[in-house]
Amino acid sequence: MENTILVRDLCRRFPDFTLDHVSFRVPKGRIVGFIGENGAGKSTTINLILNELKKDGGTVEVLGRDHADPAVKNDVGVVFDACNFPEVFTPRDVEKVLSGVYPAWDGGAYREYLRRFALPERKRIKAFSKGMKMKLAISAALAHRPRLLILDEATAGLDPVVRDEILGLLLDFIQDEEHSVFFSSHITSDIQKIADYVVLIHQGKVVFEEEKDVLLDQYGILRCGRGTEVEAGDYIARRKTGVSAEYLVRDRAAAGRKYPKAVADAASLEDIMLFYIKGEASCEE
């Protein structure tokens, strides 16, 4: 499958943190969710992909070109966790500036996004709510007709209604299978709703890169009471209390058959992330 982003052995060293040989891909026409706790390396990875930080090692390709190629920026829309336009601007002012920056700027599409999100063209940004500011940032990012959209915590702090609107827009964006989305968020429920693939990063290292449907359909939590011991090779990580234990397993159906006294439940994306980050890893992993 053709890749929109291809990251191989990406490294960046800081005094107190190291992004350690990170590798993953964003297939064309897909949404890839990028999850992990605060400080795991999500924003650092995105800034390296965008060439806003200089890497210490590895390679990054965006849309088949080296990420440092200046032409790449015209095909990439970026939305961070805050709207960075001057607050004295209006949406019309934003268009005046960006239409001179991006050769493919589409004023008609931009105004259509403003209408869709009920954003007044002449109102100053300082009077907008946080949700309105994020809708404006996404409208501007899409108006220059990018092939790739990168979002870094763009839904953080927004109410569920606004988040749902934004997630719907991302799904619309990839419908022709020519566009892709790389979506970093600590809100795993948002990722679970729309992602095709999920990448989990923890302490600067990629823990897994997996299809979302595999994670949700096959992984599970095995809940055991006293008297049931789960073999190390049968689980990924565990959490124990005084009277019971929970195990994250890759195949909950098989685990349920092997340990009939236990309860094998489905695992959410948040469950899986928390087990990997906070659970006690199996010695077989």
Question: How is this structure best described in words?
Answer:
The structure is a single chain. The strands form 3 sheets. The protein has a 6-stranded mixed sheet with strand order 6-7-8-3-9-10, sandwiched between helices. The chain has a 5-stranded antiparallel sheet with strand order 14-11-13-12-15, sandwiched between helices. It has 285 residues and is of the alpha/beta class. The chain has helices at 42-49, 91-98, 107-116, 130-142, 160-173, 188-194, 212-218, 252-258, 269-278; strands at 3-13, 18-27, 31-35, 57-62, 65-66, 76-79, 148-152, 180-184, 197-202, 205-211, 220-224, 237-240, 245-249, 263-266, 280-281. The chain folds into 2 domains: 3-211, P-loop containing nucleotide triphosphate hydrolases (Rossmann fold); 219-281, no CATH class. The mean pLDDT is 94. The protein has 9 helices and 15 strands. 38% of the residues are buried.
* Structural class by SSE content: alpha/beta
Unreliable spans: none
Main β-sheet: number of strands, strand sense, barrel status? 6 strands, mixed
Tell me the CATH architecture of the largest domain: 3-Layer(aba) Sandwich
Question: CATH H-level name of the largest domain... which superfamily?
Answer: P-loop containing nucleotide triphosphate hydrolases
Number of domains: 2
The spatial strand order of the largest sheet comes to 6-7-8-3-9-10
CATH fold descriptor of the largest domain? Rossmann fold
